[in-house]
Prior knowledge:
The protein is an alpha/beta fold. The chain has helices at residues 53-61, 108-121, 128-139, 146-170, 228-253, 281-285, and strands spanning 48-51, 64-68, 73-78, 95-96, 99-100, 177-188, 196-208, 212-219, 258-265, 271-275. The strands form two sheets. Strands 1, 2, 3, 6, 7, 8, 9 and 10 form an eight-stranded mixed sheet that branches. A hairpin with a 4-residue loop joins strand 2 and strand 3. The protein contains six helices and ten strands. Helix 1 (53-61) packs across helix 5, helix 2 crosses helix 3 (128-139) and helix 2 (108-121) crosses helix 4. 31% of the residues lie in helices and 22% in strands.
Amino acid sequence: YPGPSGQQTGTITIRMPSPDETRLVGDSQPTIDLAGYRTAATQPGTPTIQLTPSQCSGLAAGTASLTWLDEETVGVTDTFDPTETDADESDPGATQGSQAMGPGGISAAAYGTLVHRLVELAPPEETLDQDVRQVLAGETDATPSADDLTAITQAAITDAQAAEAGVQSLLTPAVRSQHAEFGLDTELDDLVQDAVVSMRGEIDRLLVFNDAYHIVDFKTDRWGSDSRDAFVQDRAMHHEPQMAAYAVALQDLDPSRDVRATIVLTAADGAYYTFAGDWDPRAVVEPLLTIPSVSE
Length: 296
């Protein structure tokens, strides 16, 4: 293990045989007949499905599938769709090659991450340019021109403001607390028969009420030619599996509270869609987690 100065240190204990120990020699030495050796029968263990909530949307859309990673682990393999990105942000009207594009020619995934960081950090104007450059440096190899950087920053500020406005519209005096980038890391052993689901992710904003949790997720999906209502409905259907996975994880951690979820669409000036009422998150997630058969 690392020592105080970073060096690798440790202890090895070697036990020598006792001087009066009886040793087997000659014909008494035990042997193993390798020709007749058979491995012991092993009992199959309980597989673990490694999952992030955002991957559930890909599973539902058919752009991802469950795959055996090793003998005990099932993971998600993505099939790239040019209208989708790893950050669940889409821009059907602007693609370059096989990658969806955001403002200023950066990827939609990088742009979505930038908007989320601006909402989370709310940087002052005097450090805004530096903060934008730092976020983009970690998300893309491209170096935007000065004009592109201005366009990216202005668009991101507008979307971040729309995201925050959407949250503000959901706040009531009944909200006991709110948490930005709320981390989830839990194992569910009753979601899939004979398997454990290991779920990890971050909720953009979690509102806590006395009797309920309210998940709020920001989406920077680009608005095409659809009407506003059609755009909101389409994006709600697409992102519902992700919201349901968050809800299932929260219900497992705290069954005493109800869970509802809202997506806030920044391209539609903070228009939002809320999953509540008779919404059944488990019924949305369970059918997506059918373990594939093991290839012979």
